[in-house]
Structures are given as C-alpha cells and as structure tokens.
Amino acid sequence: MDNFTHITSQENLSAIVHVLNVSHGTVAKEFGFNKDTNPTNNAFIEEQTLRDQLNNGIDLYALSDNDRLIGCIAIEKSSRETDTFYIEKVSVIPEYRNQGTGVKLMNFATLKIQDLGAKKISISLIDSNVKLKKWYSSQGFVEASFKDFEHLPFRVCFMSKEI
C-alpha cells in the first residue's frame, strides 16, 4: 500500500539520501558524469546538503510501499515567477520503475501544488534525456526553454505545465 510522508529537516535523512543517490545514480552513469563533473546532482547529495535545502524552502515527500521507501519528490515555490512551483528530486528506486510509481509521485505533487493555488508547474532536466522528456510530455509538460550552465556538463531543458 502506497504511503506519502512529509520529510522535515529534523529527521534522519539517510534513507532519503540513499533513494536520491540510487535513483539519480543510474542517470549519472547513463550520461557519464560524476561527483567531480556534477557535484550538485542528487546522485551525490549528502545529508547536510539535503537538510539545508529542507531548511531553505523545499517540501520533500517520501513514497513508501509496505514500509519500504521507494521514491521521493520535492516541490518548491518559485521566488521569481508568481503562481509557479517547481517539481524537483523526482526519484524512484530502479526496481520500482515502469510500474506507475513516478506517475503517482507526479500526481501527488501536482495536487499539492494545486492546493497551494499555483497556476504553473516547472521542471528541469538533462536536455538529451529523450526518454524522460517523453515521460514528462505524456503528463502534459511542454518544453519552455533551454540553458547552458557553466557548472553543469549538459544542457538543461525547462518544461512547464499550466494547471
């Protein structure tokens, strides 16, 4: 049975960090980056960094299946765009992929964001990750812009969805 839990900075974050590292680690491996070339990626996040992010405005939710942590998702209100929220840290451990788990996470986050009165959701991803782009497109997201960041070894695609 699926169960969502709001994660706070006061909790032991080791299990969530593990989910983030394992989930994003497959992407890091597929696209050939590591902690040296992309230190801010969730594949390499550490507990203190996550704790700082939680203290600075992200809301993180964990998804469990029969008490086993299988994924997580974060939402954050945009400081630049009125009525816009970001979805971040979309993470599903590999053995739970392609079973609807990611869609459950996205639907949960979308409902939370709607309840907060937002009109738009924005996400960012590796531009060359065609499979993930198609997945987000299937949920109503459209490409909005692209940006190259000096500190990242890939181009970033920003996608958005009106709600």
From TrEMBL:
The record's annotation in PROSITE patterns points to: GNAT
All copies of the N-acetyltransferase domain together span 17-163
InterPro entries, alphabetized: Acyl_CoA_acyltransferase, GNAT_dom
Which UniProt keywords are given for this protein, alphabetically ordered? Answer: Acyltransferase, Transferase
- Gene Ontology MF annotations: acyltransferase activity, transferring groups other than amino-acyl groups
Q: Which one Pfam family would you cite for this protein?
A: Acetyltransf_1
Give TM segment ranges.
Answer: none
CDD domains assigned to the protein according to its UniProt record, in alphabetical order: NAT_SF
Name this protein carries in UniProt = Putative GNAT family N-acyltransferase
Q: What organism does the UniProt record list as the source?
A: Dysgonomonas alginatilytica
